[in-house]
């Protein structure tokens, strides 16, 4: 049996969809949603996108037709919600889809997950297709669309390419394979301009984002002979710089540019005062394991969680967990 069959069966037997992805959507979340919506509509299905959070401005080029909806209140739910199925993309955790979990999930007829993240819980209800080796959800979607003979037009190609570029850090992260490049090659052949996508994703920051970066980098702390870096973003830094919370999402990668730094830990407080911790690592250090003990998740080299305790308390536990790698 084709490995993709459970996902193909779900997409084939379902006629009406609500598509969603994780909170604070990234390039792979928005890219996979936009590609899937267009693909489903092109084969005569009824589909709409509802997210927990707004689309960051840098991905606006994928949503020129305003197809990505943000769910603010119950009043926005479609009348036929009970006949719709929820398709969750780029996350396998119902705790990571915000108000979609309380407003949409209990009302739909079924839900299905297509994702590439590590799975740490067995509380998945409904069907799912989780391919952990995939570089991105968009890489999985490309294969699905090909298998289903759905034509990949320019907007679909650009959305898929964006997700792949975003989640592979421009084709350099560990899950980047020959298949990733083959898919990227096909998408470029379909009209995608790599330099345009690069410029949108990596050369379109605001000056406020630059100011925020300088403040966050000023909090740099190095531990374990410079192998572990810790950064902190406080709510005031966002307010003072005039930047948005999402504009900090790449800062975690900066310490890893130093050869000595093997783990980058980033504490991020949002405007509501909620604290998240993101972690990235190089080599063999498994940060997903650490995130899971805080009820978070992710990949071996990129993971995160919502902090329930103070930065100080959380920091102590993380550093203790990392000790085994550096002693
Ligand atoms: Mn992803």
Number of helices: 11
Poorly predicted runs of 5 or more residues: none
Total strands: 12
* Assigned CATH architecture of the largest domain: Alpha-Beta Complex
**What is the averaged pLDDT score?**
95
End-to-end distance, in Å?
47 Å
Q: Which H/E pattern describes the elements? A: HEHEEEHEEHHHHHEEHEEHEEH
CATH class of the largest domain: Alpha Beta
- What name does the CATH topology of the largest domain carry? inorganic pyrophosphatase (n-terminal core)
Structural class: alpha/beta
Share of residues in strands: 15-25%
Main beta sheet strand tally, sense and closure: 6 strands, parallel
- The percentage helix is 25-40%
Task: Please state the CA-atom Rg, rounded to the nearest Å.
Answer: 20 Å
What does this structure look like?
- The protein has 327 residues and is α/β, with parallel strands linked by helices.
- The protein folds into two domains: 5-202, inorganic pyrophosphatase (n-terminal core), CATH 3.90.1640.10; 207-325, Diaminopimelate Epimerase, Chain A, domain 1 (Roll).
- Helices cover 35% and strands 19% of the residues.
- The protein has helices spanning 5-13, 27-42, 100-103, 137-147, 154-168, 178-189, 194-202, 207-217, 235-241, 287-293, 311-322; strands at 16-21, 46-51, 68-70, 85-89, 110-115, 127-130, 221-223, 228-233, 263-269, 275-281, 297-299, 302-306.
- Helix 2 runs antiparallel to helix 5 and helix 5 (154-168) runs antiparallel to helix 6.
- Manganese (II) ion (MN) is lined by residues 28, 90, 116, 136-137, 167.
